[in-house]
Amino acid sequence: MVADGNSAIVALNDVTKVYRQGAVDVHALRGLTLDVAKGEFTAICGPSGSGKTTALNLIGALDRATSGSVVLEGHDLSRLGRRELSHMRRDRIGFVFQAYNLMPVLTAYENAETVMWVQGVAVEERRRRVMDLLAAVGLEGLEHRKPSELSGGQQQRVAIARAIAASPAIVLADEPTANVDSETADTLIGIMERLNREQGVTFLFSTHDPRVMERARRLVRLVDGEVAEDERRGS
C-alpha cells in the first residue's frame, strides 16, 4: 500500500538500502513500500537479514535510504539537513532499544526527563509528565534509582517512559524484549499495549519474538528486504 506524508505518520515509498561490504553490495531493502498510521501497534518481523532493523533505522533518521523516500509527518527525510534530522529525532521519534541505552550516571527520573530537558520544557511540567509515566510503567517509588540498581525489565520500563515523555509522533522499538525473561517480556508488551490503547501512542516494532508478533494488531513480514505479508488484525 502506497501512502503519502499527509495520510500516514510514516510512509516508505520504493525504498532501497545498499551497504558496501568490501567488494560486495549488500541489498538490505529492495523497493520497500510501507506506511504506518497514527495509533497503530505494528510489528515488523522476518529472519535475520530481512531488513527489519534497517527499516527502523531509516524511519528513525539514524541512516539514509539509497533510493526512494522516507516521509515522516510530511517531511521527506532525504531532503533534511543534519540539524533538521537531529530535531526530528529529538521531537518526533521515540526510541526503545534492546540494550536499553540509558545513561548510567542518571537516575530513572533523570533518564526519563532527558528529551524534555533538552527541549526546554518547564521544570514543573517535566516533573508532572515523568512522574505520571513512571507510575504508568510500574516504577513509582523507584525514580531515584540508577540503572545499575534496576533489573533489566525495570531498565526497559525507564526506556519506554523516556521514549514517550515528549509525546513523539511514533515510538520505534527495536527488539525491545530481546534481553529479558518471558514473564518480563509479557509485562513490557502489556505496558506498551496499554499506552497504545489509553494514550494513543503509535508503536512500530522490529522483532522476532512470537509474543510481540501475536499481540501486534498489524504484522508485516519482510523477506530479503521486501514485504512478503501485511496482516491487519482486529483491534
Shape: globular
Query: Which range does the strand content fall in?
Result: 25-35%
Strand order of the largest sheet: 6-7-8-3-9-10
- What's the end-to-end separation, in Å? 20 Å
Structural class: alpha/beta
Helix content: 25-40%
Q: What is the count of DSSP helices, taking H or I runs of 4+ residues?
A: 7
Poorly predicted runs: 1-6
**How does the major sheet shape up?**
6 strands, mixed
Secondary-structure element order, N to C: EEEHEEHEHHHEHEHEE
Layout of SSEs?
Blueprint: E1 10-21, E2 24-36, E3 41-45, H1 52-59, E4 67-72, E5 75-76, H2 82-92, E6 93-97, H3 108-119, H4 123-136, H5 152-164, E7 170-174, H6 182-199, E8 203-206, H7 210-215, E9 218-223, E10 226-232
Helix pairs in contact: 3-4, 3-5, 4-5, 5-6
Protein model, in words:
This protein is an alpha/beta fold. It is built from 7 helices and 10 strands. It has a 6-stranded mixed beta sheet, with helices on both faces. The protein has a 4-stranded antiparallel beta sheet with strand order 2-1-4-5. A hairpin with a 2-residue loop joins strand 4 (67-72) and strand 5 (75-76). The radius of gyration is 17 Å and the shape is globular. It starts with 9 loop residues before the first strand and ends with a strand. 40% of the residues are buried.
Summarize the entry for a quick read:
This protein is an alpha/beta fold and 235 residues long. The protein has helices at 52-59, 82-92, 108-119, 123-136, 152-164, 182-199, 210-215, and strands at residues 10-21, 24-36, 41-45, 67-72, 75-76, 93-97, 170-174, 203-206, 218-223, 226-232.
